[in-house]
UniProtKB/TrEMBL annotation:
PANTHER family: HTH-TYPE TRANSCRIPTIONAL REGULATOR BETI (PTHR30055:SF234), HTH-TYPE TRANSCRIPTIONAL REGULATOR RUTR (PTHR30055). GO terms for molecular function: DNA-binding transcription factor activity; transcription cis-regulatory region binding. This is Transcriptional regulator, TetR family. Residues 9-69 form the HTH tetR-type domain. Keywords: DNA-binding, Transcription, Transcription regulation. Residues 32-51 bind DNA. Pfam families: TetR_C_33, TetR_N. It comes from Aeromicrobium choanae. The keyword Transcription regulation applies.
Length: 191
């Protein structure tokens, strides 16, 4: 009789969920294979087989973060200024609700190909659709603008988390608003 398979997709989800909880409660620095395996009720060998080690696990947690972010983003709109501001506001609310996860997502590159239809691609697509709806630029220019906007928001997110956008809430709001307004103005003027 064949031995039952113990390293299943269900176990991979349990490990990823345990890792996500550790990031949320203790920060990304606490994300060790031993700690995560213990939290998921498994062993390091299973974690390594399913994720290829710590880096694969970190990547899986970051990808899950993008799924969560995609779920709270607004739909694309043909009003570039309004659409980009709504997107930035949603991203900022997410990063404030999930500070350690947002930092993990934005401070490292994603490894390997991103699966079709994944939240990381949905996040970019909302920006692309907004830019294309009111911009006659070619697809490459729109893609470049979408990547630049993602980089802008990632930078604002990390800078705010580290207290580098001002001492008051009003000042931080002003910096976010100004950055998005300047970006939108540049896109609308054709750079």
């Amino acid at each position: 009789m064949a031995r039952p398979r113990t390293r299943t997709d269900a176990l991979a989800h349990e490990i990823r969920d345990a890792a996500l909880e550790i990031v949320r409660s203790e920060g990304a620095g606490a994300l060790t294979t031993r700690h995560v395996a213990r939290g998921a009720g498994t062993n390091i060998a299973a974690l390594n087989q399913l994720f290829g080690g710590r880096e694969g696990l970190v990547n899986a947690v970051a990808l899950e973060g993008f799924e969560l972010l995609a779920a709270v983003l607004p739909s694309a709109t043909d009003d570039v200024r309004h659409g980009l501001m709504e997107y930035a506001d949603a991203c900022r609310r997410f990063s404030r609700a999930e500070p350690a996860l947002a930092e993990l997502m934005f401070m490292r590159p994603l490894a390997g190909p991103i699966p079709s239809g994944h939240g990381a691609l949905k996040c970019r697509q909302v920006v692309i659709d907004t830019l294309q709806a009111s911009n006659e630029a070619d697809a490459d220019a729109v893609e470049t603008d979408a990547m630049a906007f993602a980089a802008l928001l990632a930078g604002l997110t990390v800078q705010e988390r580290h207290g580098l956008l001002g001492r008051t809430e009003e000042r931080r709001d002003e910096v976010w608003r100004a950055a998005v307004e300047v970006f939108a103005a540049g896109v609308l003027s054709g750079r």
